[in-house]
Design goal:
CATH architecture of the largest domain: Alpha-Beta Barrel
Radius of gyration: 20 Å
Strand order of the largest sheet: 8-11-12-13-14-15-18-19
Structural class: alpha/beta
Distance between the termini: 16 Å
Largest sheet: 8 strands, parallel
CATH topology of the largest domain: TIM Barrel
Shape: globular
Number of domains: 2
Number of helices: 10
CATH class of the largest domain: Alpha Beta
Helix content: 10-25%
Length: about 400
Amino acid sequence: MIFINARVIFPDAIREDLAVTVGARKIVEIGAPVAGANDVVDLHGNFLAPGFIDLHVHGGNGHDAMEANAEAFRAICNYHASGGTTSLLLTTATVAFPDILLALTQIGKLRGQIPEVAGAHVEGPFISADRAGAQNLEFICEANAELIGCLLEHRDVIKRLTIAPEIKGAMTAMKDLSEAGIVVSGGHSNAWEEEARAALENGMQSVTHTFNCMSSARRRGTKRIAGLLEVALSEPKICCELIAEEHHVSPALMKLLYCAKGSGGICLVTDATAGAGLADGSLFRLGGRDCVAKDGACFLADKPVLAGSTSRMIDLVRTMMREAEVPLPEVIAMASVNPAREAGLANKGEIAVGKDGDLVVLSPELEVLQTYVAGVLSFRAERTNSAAEVLS
């Protein structure tokens, strides 16, 4: 399959003079178009970008990762393919610990059948009750050796784990998890600066949904002390998740993060829950709690507390470009090459020879027209009178 007449997006540039060839599930050639080639896909000047990678997604279209079955996993992946996502980490919630282990077991069993599933992100139960957000307070617990040992039995599945640095057992847990190759992300945390810096020394290399459910500068006695947020902003080695939609983060905060971290220090994430893709007013469950999709976001049903987003990755890409004024190649990198690096997905995240044929075709208006996973079409936009029609 040879893609021609595309504006090909690389991390540092957009090129219009290249053909991209995919064979045997991989990108096998990038070069000048060859006349008379077979299996040509003419993109008619639309963008060709690397497939998006979502490090933090609980669900979509009425389904949640905690359902722990193939039907739910496929429904989630199919929904997010419409937003250009070709790989994702199914994300657990703060629920009974056996249910988390069951979800991890099922993700491990089924990821070979569902190529979009790249592994798991464990969010909770090792979090602060003071910064729980929509997570279920009933199941928050300490990071004791027994529970961490159970998680380490799934080290081949878990790519990422969110933990509050200040909770009991966190430092030892962070060290053990990072030594096992799991990315440790600080989040749902009320940590003081010294606790956040101790976490850095013990393996923390990321923070979860920056600006949300994390401590920031406050007074202790006569001094103003940094929180997890300021430590993350000031430490170059920390990569920051960002839910770039205006319910979670305003445009000014998006710009602040970009100025502090640059494009290389940000991973766009949806934090989408089962309400994503549902009609306004639809009810769903997250970690045993009743939630509602409303006004383009998700909330607890009984109080105005955010419970994830309804966004797809392409929605975040558009917002980051238009509201935060970040150049398109850099925004695409935040949705592809950066999360590939964070999740250890060496064969994904870039349009480069030898990488997986995970690609997304975007219109000039940044609408997803087609999504390919390992060279296989996983989503095609419905026929319209726009640029999508020329690819039908």
